[in-house]
Amino acid sequence: MADTLLEVRDLRTYIYTRRGVVKAVDGASFSVRRGETLGIVGESGSGKSMTCLSILRLVPEPGGRIVGGQILFDGENLLDKSPEEMRRLRGPRIAMILQDPMASLNPAMTVGEQIAETLALHRGLRGRALDDRVVELLRQVKISDPERRVHAYPHQMSGGIRQRVAGAIAISCQPSLLIADEPTTSLDVTIQSQYLRLLKEIQRETSLALVFVTHDLGIVAKLCDRVAVMYAGRIVELGRTRDIFNRPRHPYAIGLLDCLPTLRRGREPLTAIEGQPPDLANVPEGCSFTPRARRWSRSTASILSRAFAPARPRPWAAERPPCHGRPPLPSPSPWAAATSSSRRVSSPSTFRSPAARSSAGDSGR
Amino acid sequence: MKAVDGVDFVLRRGETLGLVGESGCGKTTTARLVLSLERPTTGGVFFRGRDIHSLGRHERGGYRRAVQAVFQDPFSSLNPRLTIRTTVSEPLAQTEPDLTRAELAERVAASLTRVGLQPRIADDYPHELSGGQRQRVAIARALTTNPECILLDEAVSALDVSIRAQVMNLLREIQDRSGVSYLFIAHDLAVVKYVSARIGVMYLGKLVETAPADELYANPLHPYTQVLLSNALPAHPDDVRDEVILKGEVPSAFNPPSGCRFHPRCPQAMPICGEVEPPLHEQASGHPVACHLY
Is residue B207 one of the residues assigned to a domain? Predict the structure, then answer.
């Protein structure tokens, strides 16, 4: 695909701890096109943030290590780059906004100095030209009175303004990919709304590709073109936002949508997903969502999941969720019609064998 | 600073009143006043018709037994050095010191069971539990004294969506069974709608509108409420709304704007709004609003 900017293939990032190996990212694959917004949703500990840090090669060391896969950015594998080459890439080509601007900004430097630092380092700007560019950036992120605000320290600003400053630093060198890790989680409703609107505007002006990590499906609905649903270090469903909201296929994605209280919804009890996300140091074999999946009887599920883990979606091939319970897109098999009417498979014998599944998968691609 | 300035509301028995508003609107100060952790400069908090700040020592114990609280962050609201048993039984040790050990153990087990936890976790420490389990422990602690009212200050905000749905269902179930009242403080409009029968909207220390939940969402009167609702996140990509984007941020409560506190940011401000403070008065039945438009 010519317009693919970033392609992550079978990424595995493990964290080696005293308790054992935490498979924070365990075979994640997705791609991001130029100028598009990809949402990555999932709950705490699903591996969203670790995926982002892996793309930037900022996995915390020692302990964390990327153990497999490829990260192709503009056709080059980032995992082959030297630390020095990565340093030259971060900022000018790939930038990141973190959740807490109070932690990501330096409290002892004025915001002007912090924005200038990036520009001086990567763009070699000095003196007047540098000052002008800093003020222009503050204006671009809609901070009022930028000439005065460049001299302010982060603690003198509100959370929303601080996060705009972090945004100004991120876009200062005009990167082609911006990774935003829950940037609005600590913001109020109206401030969040302003910020999302600002991101969209900047994206329109600069044709920036955006990877937006969030746990909030509302933000995904509002902002993202496509969405990847992460669970236990894997991407369990990937597709266009509208398709996933209209027809979620993986039981976890269905569960996430069902347990979301919304303004439109009545007061009927929410369908909670039972149990908790798995401990990533000790992920169950087979499909990691099986212990919480509502659609299967426990025994059927366990027999199935032990037999084989579902295939992972390959964004460079057909987009489909890795779940045994749902047929591949686009042509539903007769078997699917049978399950959708009964909603439950009573015995594993009605399920296709692994061999049959893989041949069906090949013809679908 | 006037953190809370002339807020009036009534919480009825067995009802849930939601309070929404953004940071700095006085939600948490209101909570602290209700818990009698803060004394009001003027006005009072009345429980069964009596001002809680004028209660005697003995009666105050009764009030503390009747009104319990659950806070936002289950990581900081549970003492990491106490077992779950000690934490959950603490309100009882304070309010009913005559209980025997066996009775205490029984009450703790009953509380844990009510929130869907296994009584055997009583000897665990908070770090052994997940976030959702810790919040259940905090709710169990609030339930041990059989309270009449539980104050929930952003009690589900820090939880993951799937866990949040479990806890919200649990809260409703407890209310249906025991008839406890909730004062539910949150910033997420969809969450507040889901649990509350009536909702109050706060802005900069003032209550600007209260209404039954469905009425508020169907027919928001105050411009600030309208802005909040228009800025709520959509439930579906096709759910497109005309957002009213507010300029600027909430002003400092040290020096609030004259007249209506919302007027510098209000899309429908009139000359009178900068001069006269609008009182809260009833529009439709049970739907008071503080705005000059009505």
Answer: no
For the stretch A67-107, pLDDT in tens is 999 999 999 999 999 999 999 999 999 999 988 888 889 99
Q: How many domains are there within chain B?
A: 2
Q: Determine, yes or no, domain membership for B191.
A: yes
Q: d(Cα A350, Cα A207) in Å, to the nearest integer? A: 49
* Closest listed residue to residue A262, CA positions, set A237, A245, A276: A245
Tell me the pLDDT tens digit for each residue of B224-243: 999 999 888 888 888 877 78
Q: Which domain holds residue B273?
A: 214-294
Q: Is A247 on the interface with B (CB under 8 A)?
A: no
> Which of B22, B232, B250 is opposite residue A263, by nearest beta carbon?
B232
Q: How confident is the model at residue A345 (pLDDT cuts 50, 70, 90)?
A: very low
Give the DSSP H/E element, type plus range, for residue B62: helix B57-66
Give the position of tokens 């064998």: A353
Q: How distant is the Cα of A221 from the closest Cα of chain B, in angstroms?
A: 4
Average confidence (pLDDT) over B203-214: 92
CA atoms within 13 A on the CB side of B46: 10
Residue of A193, A274, A276 with shortest CB distance to B231: A193
Single residue among B196, B223, B241 that ends a domain in this structure: B196
CATH of the domain at B160: 3.40.50.300
Give the number of domains in chain A: 1
Q: Sort out which chain A residues have CB atoms less than 8 A from B28's CB and list them.
A: none
CB of B156 closer than 8 Å to CB of B132:
no
Residue numbers of the domain that contains A68 = 4-231
* Interface contact B162-A273, CB threshold 8 A: yes
Pair of tokens at residue A334 = 């007769």
